Amino acid sequence: MTPALETLLTTDLHEAARFIQRGELVAFPTETVYGLGADVFNESAIGKVFAAKGRPSDNPLIAHVSHQDQIKQLAADIPDDAQKMIDAFFPAPLTLVLPKHDRVPLLASAGLQTIGVRMPRHDLAREFITACGTPLVAPSANLSGSPSPTTWQAVAADLLGRIACILQGVQTEVGLESTVVDCTGDAPVVLRTGGVTLEQLQAIVPATRKADATDLHQPKSPGLKYRHYAPHATVVMVSEMNELKGNEHAAWIGLHAPRSSDWHLIKQCADVAEYAHELFAFFRACDAQGIKAIYCEAVAEQDLGVALMDRIRRAAHR
Ligand code: TXA
Ligand code: MG
Predict the structure, then answer these.
(1) Residue 121 is part of a domain; what is its CATH number?
(2) Neighbours of 102 (CB within 10 A)
(3) Which residue from 31, 119, 205, 274 has the fewest beta carbons nearer than 10 Å?
(4) 136-155: per-residue pLDDT in tens?
(5) E strand or H helix that includes residue 287
(6) CA of 232 to the centre of ligand 2 (A)
């Protein structure tokens, strides 16, 4: 066992950046979820990311930039379709998988010759990366297997004593992880749905398509084979509310209020954006209260609803 680290909590991005420069790990906010950052060119720091999260070493990391110029340090080539998406969307909740530059350690890409690149839309995230003076690898800042953190308190619950620093920010805006698009084949392929929708991508590159079963096999999208985003409670997706009854050990989240009020916890969201924003925080709140089952209302699979339904299905799948 490595001894527990003292984890500094700070709102000072320059203080946090000094940890990155010393090869340590810093969790920081983005518009999707909090990321666990390390210098993309420091192999020993990248090793600490996998250790702190308990992450399988075959699951590649996303590299985060604050300026478009930095993409050239990470990618050996920027295919035309990728450049169009960069021009149209960056900074955005969007990750583009590109051919990897030799300078990026293979540890970051889990041995793949490709690297995911993202420029976060959240100002504090970009200011922090700029202060670090280097792109940062950053997976979601949770223990492997638990829901992605949308607050600094959720990061602390998972990683206190395991990382050097948490840069404290607000609850993340989108609440679900970025859309991941593989730009290394003939046509762009959406490997993970997220804040940027298939329709928005197709408006820029019409050939962009959904992943099919073969795309989702190794080595295209290693992370998707792991059971993600799951609270300890059982998650049940509800498409038909009529017969549904609550109980003191169950919680409800959705766009409508459940008929009966005998639930331990009820979260009614005004729209799909609020539902996405709240989902992972709700999962964690339910676990903290020892709730046994979380009922999640199904939503229409359009726009952000596609990514929201994906995350609920993954959490419900045992
Ligand atoms: O919104 C996000 O993307 C957040 C914030 C912190 O930016 N990060 C995040 O990272 O969700 P992570 O590591 O939890 O999820 C990254 C996903 C995994 O499913 C991984 O397999 C996939 O992206 N991925 C990363 N690099 C890849 C690559 N080169 N080829 C295919 N899939 C890749
Ligand atoms: Mg993750």
Answers:
(1) 3.90.870.10
(2) 8
(3) 274
(4) 999 999 999 899 999 999 99
(5) helix 272-288
(6) 16
- pLDDT tens digit string along 196-233? 999 999 999 999 999 988 776 655 566 666 656 689 99
Average pLDDT over residues 46-68: 97
Structure tokens at 145: 């297997």
Same domain, 35 and 132: yes
Residue 226 and residue 228: Cα distance in Å, rounded? 6
Q: How far, in Å, CA of 273 to CA of 50, rounded?
A: 31
- Domains identified in the chain, total number: 2
- Exposed e or buried b per residue across 153-183, where buried means at least 16 C-beta atoms within 10 angstroms of its C-beta: ebbbbbbeebbbbbbbbebbbbbbbbbbbbb
pLDDT at 62: 98
> From ligand 1's centre to the CA of 116, what distance in Å?
7
30, part of any domain? yes
* Global model pTM greater than 0.90: yes
90 and 157 share one domain: yes
Of all protein residues, whose CA lies closest to atom 3 belonging to ligand 1? 178
